Amino acid sequence: MIKNIEHIEKISCFDSFQWNDIPEFQKYNFIFGFNGSGKTSLSNIFNLVTSKSNYSEDKKKELFQDLKNHDSSKIKIATGNNQKLTYPPTESQNNRNVFVFNSNFISDHVYDGTKGNLKKFNVSSTELNDPEIKKITDNIETKEEIIKGINKKIKKAEEDFSQIKKDYNSDFRKHFANKQLSIDKKLPDASSVPTDSVEQLQEKLNLKIKEHKLSKNQKSLEEDIQSFSQLTFPQIKILKSDINKVFQDSVSKIATDSLTKKISDYQEIVEEDDVRKVEPWYKFGNELFKKISSIQNKKCPLCDSNINDSYIDLVNSFSAYFDKEYEVFITKIDEQISLIEQQIKTIKETNTNYEKLLKLYIKYSDFINHSPSEFTTIELERLLSEIKDGLNKKKNNSNKNITFDFSDIRTRLMNHNQVMEELSSYVESLKENLLSKIKSPSEIESTIRGIYKSLVYKSLNSKLNGVEKYHSNCELRIKTEKEIEVLQEEKVQRLKDLKLEAKKVGEFLIRLGINHFTIDLNEESEGDNILVKYKSQSQIKSRLRNTLSEGEKTALAFSYFLSKVTIETKNPSQTIIVIDDPISSLDDNRIYNTASLIYDTFHDYKQLFILSHNFFFLKYIYPSFRKGKSCYLISNGNIDILPKSLQNFQTPYYYMIESISSFIEENDKNYDEARKYLPNYIRRVLETFFSFKYAKLTRAKNVNQSPGLDDFIKDYIDFSSLPLMTVDSITNENIKDKLQMINNVCDNFSHGNMQQLENTNFIANQTLDSISKDCLSIIDFFDGIHFQMINELNTAEE
């Protein structure tokens, strides 16, 4: 909707108009203006912002050249959503669908002043009133809407396909720089869509991309496979029986009971800390006794007592011990200690290998289904260390009986060995798995491209909720387009049988009350193509300028406008209508019919503008529109709200009096502007006042003319019978001279010929002031009550 005419700069009579403090346009807008006020210029401004289908760009340029007064000439119109329509236009400007009826429309479409040439309607996509064509058109439009919806879906699907390909190609290039992911331009059919989900395909893709990276470094892979081969996880064996035997056996069991007792007795008196000092005696006692045997007086090496008598017994008693048994026994302990140390070392090596295995697993975890079994050797190592400590104690005290609970270590060994077995199998399977990854990079890239293609198809299928819908829509579009082609052929054939322009225009002529002639269209003529046939005559006439009256030409042009708009407009709620004085030269009955027809035709359109100088026409049409209407006054290059003195379009009389009064009261008068309208207003006000005062409708000398001011001065006013009174500068003695003065000034200025206008088109400022005051004083002199009521009307309006 057009909200206002924000600015008009140097266009026709509009010098620099700004829309200030004026209510915005509504749905129905009535613009009154006297002749020469700028109505036609305003209607042509609407032509500058209509769509090019209604008014071509070339015609707009010509029109603008005719309207503009300066290189800075421009217009700006405000519409809904804060949009602006300008001329010269902006590149992104979205002009409105506006139809304008004015003199330009008449000359362009019906009658250019010399010949009648009815333009063909644009019926290529129009809803027509012919039942058969309307049915075909409705059918076509229904199918076109179907195609529009299908095209929207197809376009959306193709855009989605293009975007998905673009996205995956971008992802592909992250892994394969300077390469493109080539995928068919056509959308896939349902059979090409993979069964795997997008997530599954993505997992495959990620794995293959990693395989591709792996395959590009074969040497590193082979080295890592070799590293796998060197990782071993042996099992741990602990012979409980051997260790227990060492723990339970001792050298004292080999000695005799006597020696055992003696040694035991001796050991009892030795503190525990000194046992380690006694233990060497077991080892070197035999050699010691051998050396003592060569001595005359033999003494005990331990207690220094005389052992001459018992020496032989002691040597015999120790003989079983002081041979090789002690060394053998200690050797067995050392062997067990060595075995335990070896197992501890094996465990440490196992832990080291496990760390290496974990590093390799992390490196190749993408290609390995599960991680290696976890385990800990802390407790096992601790238990082994305890056994080792026990053996060392046994070694230092060979006769000490040591016990050890093997239940815990037995369980831990079993678990540990089971894990070692699993890790050994794990290493072997890992080697085989990695060996299978030694492939050609180009072979893997080909597989990757295939997965990307599957991802594109699967993603698209998910996006479209089934690609079969796309192909179904394509088939339906082809089918519907063929059906439209058939209907278009039917429509063309039907249009050939109709002369729509003549038919529709004839219908509107009848509604305007013109039924005494009909028109037809001569499609073969490039000149006068309007054929006129009067009912009272048999002859068909084609020269419009000599055939129809001015009123009939106006009715014909407006009927054509009504026909063109109603036929070419598919959406009235989005169409704006501008009508400039459609009742030129029409009589009162046809003016009423025109007003009624405009309401019936355009009341449901988006917006309506009616411009006119005819009060009878506006008076007829204004009440028809009950809501959403506003009235404006256009005058001397300015647009303003319609004053109350002109509201309801009864008569311009009160408005002209108000204008005269306003001029008198102005402090800073614009005399140049006032000269253009004030003399005419003064003359018309006085003529209207005296017509009502003296009830005179016609001149005494010519009954076909309304009386002028000169008639009232000479024929109707009896100055001798006027009351003795004074109103301002008016008295009964000078009133005739005052009227004659006004008549001389205003009548020449308003009605004179060109020569007179050239001689009298200047009125002195003082004269304008004088005749304006005298005009109102004369009305007050003749009818004080009337004058008082006018003042009250003006005061109430203010």
From TrEMBL:
Pfam families named among the record's database cross-references: AAA_13
Span of domain Protein CR006 P-loop: 11-708
Entry coiled-coil feature ranges: 133-167
InterPro entries found in the cross-reference section: CR006_AAA, P-loop_NTPase
Protein keywords: Coiled coil
Domain of life of the organism encoding this protein: Bacteria
Coiled coil recorded as keyword: yes
PANTHER family to which the protein is assigned, alphabetical: ABC TRANSPORTER ABCH.3 (PTHR32114:SF2)
Protein's name according to its UniProt entry: Wobble nucleotide-excising tRNase
The organism of origin for this protein: Arenibacter palladensis
